Amino acid sequence: MFWIQREIKTERRLMETMLGLLIGIGLSAACGFRVFVPLLVVSIASNAGHLTLSPGFDWMGSDAALIAFAVATVLEVGAYYVPWIDNLLDTIATPVAVVAGTIVTASVISDIGPFMKWTLAVIAGGGAAGLVQGTTVLARGASTAGTGGLTNPVVATAELGGSIVTSLAAVFMPVVAVILVAVLLVVIGLRVSRKRARPAVASPG
């Protein structure tokens, strides 16, 4: 009986760890679209009782953190609609997104040791955030090169929507969030590669 209870407890902890990892990957991928949107969603979800943060990350659910993330989100979202500044922000957002993805992943993984937690957070969380951010940089670069930045607001809106949807899905439907991120990366990657593969049209004369 003791061994059965121990086995059940071990399996439960493993399932909780895997669920936390899926949530973390979804949230960190959302950080690749917009750094502060997922952090704001985590803070709101924690305040509402829909998300339990791992020990040491309770501060993310505080009122002060909620206000700070809200202000930072508004500033970040607005800045991406300013021509040319959006491209400049990409150079800053890439490393910041990796850090944010690592932190947000660590905040939702529990029941494992610190070394394993941060290893998973860096590889899975930071990796997902960096991959998505790199893809969005390519998409914005293609938009800037092809239209002189005229369609960049469309790209910014798509990124914002992707961040919001992915963040909410990560909290409430983590498996769906991971699948959604994979699909989005494939779609964006294909579109960027097609634009780059198009031959230049020679001007007459």
What are the key terms here?
205 residues, disordered C terminus, 7 helices
What does this structure look like?
The chain is mainly alpha-helical and 205 residues long. It has one domain. Helix content is 80%, strand content 0%. It contains seven helices and no strands. It has helices at residues 2-33, 36-48, 63-79, 85-108, 114-147, 152-172, 174-197. The longest helix is centred in the middle third of the chain and has 34 residues, at 114-147. The termini are far apart. 38% of the residues are buried.
Tally of individual helices: 7
Give the number of DSSP strands. Answer: 0
Relative strand content:
under 5%
Distance between the termini: 87 Å
> How much helicity do the residues have?
over 70%
Q: Give the uncertain stretches in residue-range form.
A: 200-205
What sort of overall outline do the alpha carbons produce when their principal axes are compared? Answer: globular
| Class from helix and strand fractions | mainly alpha
Oligomeric state of the chains? single chain
Tell me the count of domains: 1
Question: Gyration radius, to the nearest Å?
Answer: 19 Å
SSE pattern, N- to C-terminal: HHHHHHH
How confident overall, as mean pLDDT?
A: 84
Main β-sheet, in a few words?
Answer: none
SSE topology sketch:
Blueprint: H1 2-33, H2 36-48, H3 63-79, H4 85-108, H5 114-147, H6 152-172, H7 174-197
Helix pairs in contact: 1-2, 1-4, 1-5, 1-6, 1-7, 2-3, 2-6, 4-5, 5-6, 5-7, 6-7
Could you provide a short overview of the structure?
This protein has 205 residues and is an all-alpha fold.
